[in-house]
């Protein structure tokens, strides 16, 4: 795929997150959240059997960047979103929505029926994204975020089962 400027070539891929990705991921994390995850927290996720840790990589002029990442768990019959962030310069291009659709797709493939997440009550951008992806508020966890004592909204969505066409 090419843009108006033929010198800039963009190639996207979704890959499993690796330990080598963590320096870039930690920078995105620090720019995205008031209390970012630590390297140890990411390493714990990489070692957790039921955790799915994915990155979107983008190639621009021969250099590969991490544009976004997603971590979710597959537990019992549900998908639980743990972390999602998009690098600042790649925001507002549909990557977060694509990652949410990918999470739904993987959940559907392994027989999950529901998705859940917690989000800061004042994180209106994230709440808007999640609503767009079919999530609804089902509850509140008071003072869930210990850094700010902010409440968390608990959001749920049914897994959208994909239909085979053809």
Structure notes:
The radius of gyration is 16 Å and the shape is globular. It has helices at residues 22-32, 39-47, 95-109, 124-132; strands at residues 10-16, 51-60, 63-75, 78-86, 114-120, 136-145, 150-158. The longest helix is centred in the middle third of the chain and has 15 residues, at 95-109. Strands 1-2-3-4-5-7-6 form a seven-stranded mixed beta sheet, sandwiched between helices. The chain has a single domain (10-158), classed as Aminopeptidase. With 166 residues, the protein is an alpha+beta fold. It starts with 9 loop residues before the first strand and ends in an 8-residue tail after the last strand. Residues 1-9 have low confidence and may be disordered. A hairpin with a 4-residue loop joins β6 and β7.
């Amino acid at each position: 795929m090419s843009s108006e400027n033929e010198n800039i070539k963009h190639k996207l891929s979704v890959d499993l997150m690796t330990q080598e990705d963590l320096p870039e991921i930690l920078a995105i994390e620090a720019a995205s959240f008031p209390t970012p995850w630590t390297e140890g927290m990411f390493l714990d996720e990489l070692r957790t059997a039921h955790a799915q840790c994915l990155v979107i990589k983008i190639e621009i002029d021969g250099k590969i960047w991490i544009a976004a990442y997603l971590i979710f768990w597959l537990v019992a019959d549900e998908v639980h979103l743990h972390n999602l962030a998009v690098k600042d310069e790649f925001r507002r291009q549909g990557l977060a929505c694509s990652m949410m659709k990918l999470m739904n797709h993987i959940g559907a493939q392994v027989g999950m029926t529901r998705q859940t997440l917690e989000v800061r009550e004042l994180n209106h951008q994230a709440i808007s994204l999640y609503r767009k992806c079919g999530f609804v508020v089902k509850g509140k966890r008071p003072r869930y975020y210990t850094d700010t004592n902010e409440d968390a909204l608990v959001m749920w969505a049914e897994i959208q089962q994909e239909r085979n066409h053809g």
